[in-house]
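hiii so my PI (J.) wants the whole complex modelled not just the main chain, which honestly fair. so below is everything: three entries, each one labled with what it is. i double checked the lines twice but i was tired so who knows lol
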Amino acid sequence: MQFQKEVEILATREKVWRFIWDVDRFIACVPGCKDAKTVEEGKRYTAIMTEKVGPFKVEFPTTIEVLERVELTRIKAQATGTDNKIGSRMKIDLDVNLREQENKTIVEFVAGVDILGKLAALGHGIIKRKADQVLDEFAQAVKQKLEGDG
Amino acid sequence: MANGSSRNSDRQTIPVSFTLNGRLQEMDVEPHELLLDVVRDRLGLTGAKRSCDVQVCGACTLLVDGRPVSACTTLAFEVRGSSVMTIEGLADEGKLHPLQQAFIEHGGFQCGFCTPGMLLAAKALLDEIPNPSEEQLKHFMHGNLCRCTGYKKIIESIMAAAKKMRGGRA
Amino acid sequence: MLRRFRLDEPESVAEVSELLGRFGDSAKVYAGGTELLLAMKEGLVHYERLINVKKLKGLGEVASDNGTIKIGALCTHHELENSSLIKQSLPALAQLEQNVANVRVRQAGTLGGNLCFAEPHADPGTLLIALGATMVAQKSSSKREIAAEEFFVDAYETSLEADEVLCEIRVPTPGPNGRSAYLKFGYLERPSVGVAVAFNLINGNLSDIRIAVGCAGPAPKRVAQAEALLSGKSKDEAARNLAQAGALAGRASQAISDLHGAQDYKEHIVGVLLKRAFQAALS
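here's the output for the full assembly
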């Protein structure tokens, strides 16, 4: 599943870039994500991603690897996780691009999301909708955190 | 898994008393046991089949108080106080039920895998509607799938049995 | 095989509510089990306790009370399809119930269970919205009525609180001019698109029209914009607006592309079914 989101943030590129690497604050923007830890600064992080669709709950202990990093411009990362209780795997390929525009920063997220295993039984459509919602909430949370702090 | 656990005494069991093919059966079941597993594995009646396991194919059909149920998705304790019929109980002391006879005479089965469920569902149909139209028959039997026959012979068999059971000749 | 769980068999709704409050997410109401047991077998959910509600009294009847038909949440689809009261007063519902899943599911599955599990590809919710039904939910000490169109929040999610029990479904008895129809389309095991229409036809004019779409999206929805195009019109005028109403209803259905079909395909089918349901209701 592919998703593309763009969010306009009233903050400088430097500020946005710094925010992204402030792991705790950044991870806090992902709905259902908790226990963010730095394994190797700038390279590897772990977190726990939880999601709920009605009575169906998943908890993915996730590893996030930063694959590419272009200062102030681009991050390419991959997050993978397995929920053994429910027999499902999750993989997210994330491409984040920052663009300066006057006094704003345009952040573009391109996410490829793959859910494998039993959870897929819920139906591609339901999962897609959920993933879309999560990414929307995430983008909005990042915007609010950055703009709110002044 | 831990051995010698005293958890065994914690395990909830439910006493289930029911008639099975006309005979009284008494046993204890745990709440999570499925009727299909109890019938096949504990009672040794393997006519009912686990096929789709999601209630759509009918190969596990049993009759509980004359009503067709998916044994794969029925908890065993639910038959307490009821009468249960499996395919092994359809014939009367070796004398074939008219439905069984009709399926033989009209070619209503090939591999036979769906047949136990098919026969019990057909019995439930004819008990409810002794003179069904073809449309009523198809509607009732909609949830029993067959991969071999293409259904035509099954319909003929059931209609013939229905006629016989109503007193006409097949 | 299912994972082990404990079975509770309370005899009052208050007890059920108390158990739900106490055990939270680790307990679940169990009636017919036709949806719940499938999810449990699949390993998608696990509960430490199942609360068997089939011993609750008074939740398994259909009765007429002062212009309202009251359906107990524990009524099975089979009971509803054969209920003379339902067949007489709500023929569209009787027909819907007759076509739920298959004969075995209809024997075990309850209307309440169907509504509470809120599977997107289900029938009754859509028609109940069009019929203006309300759901009666009870907790330990209080009761409330929820309009059907507010009952379904999202896929597998209703507006019931964690310790609330659905007890009854109330449908206003249609008058002599009441018309309704429910049509569904699907070629997989579960329906892919469902459309319900209900209105009063007085002297050739439509009033009190309600349209609902389901199965295509995550939850059944009432489509007020489509209703507005047909309300107060003569049946011929309304018929001319059906294509537009159908397009509105299609978009309102929040159709999701999946194995049941692409989004635009489902939206198209909504339009087709709306037209046919309208005609069926008139005939």
